[in-house]
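Appendix B. Worked example

We walk through a single record from start to finish. Start with the input: the chain for Carbonic anhydrase, Streptomyces cinnamoneus, length 248.
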Amino acid sequence: MDRTRAPGRRTLLAGGLAAAAAALSGCAAPGASAGRASTPPSPGARPTTPSAAFARLMDGNKRWVSGDLQHPDRDPTRRELVAQEQNPFGVVLSCIDSRVPPELLFDTGLGDLYVMRTGGQAVGPVVTGSVEYGPVTGGTPLIFVLGHQRCGAVKAAYTSLREDKPLPGNLQAIVRALRPAYERALKEGGADPVETMARAQVRLTASDLRGNADLAPLVRKGALAVVGGYYSLDTGAVEILTDVPPGA
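Next comes the structure step. The output line below is what the pipeline stores for this chain.
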């Protein structure tokens, strides 16, 4: 995870990123502008602890599975409330797969989640920095790494590595990023090595984020939790693969 991290990035985050965030009018962190009122709470109020944020996501997923959707925070009033600043309660790192839209499968809306989507949850310095943004600058209490069933990116990377045939162009960067998961899958075995690799990618990515130099202190003091889950295309349900936040 982020093994090619650029020198000095931790210093930037520790000293300058929070200040720089205040100047980003479209990405303002809570309280970034003096005299500006905080975004009024959406129905149910914004979760402020890892366990509450986790519960909000999982309750939303249950509604997605059952079809009893609330479609919260998806109207002009909500758009107006979050137009000037945002205060999301969760960060989701998921795949680009068109069948796995986090805002829908967790039944959330505008201003609720920071969402990063890459092929097979492949990570690098830019993606890692994007994941760090909410927790480091605004106190977002939850990071959720979401893999999924029948992941095309994982399958392509698995085949490329197994057959030693590089993928064209920048697709090979995804293969390189997923190599640790491939190696883990070879050790673990299983009836379906691609599914084993996809689950390994979730666990490895969540573990690396949990131990990240800038996120680990937040995790240790209980202000942040990093959870890994696996989405079933067949049922719509999210299965938890890593430890849940204390109290959840």
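Two observations about the output. The radius of gyration is 18 Å. The first helix runs from residue 9 to 22.
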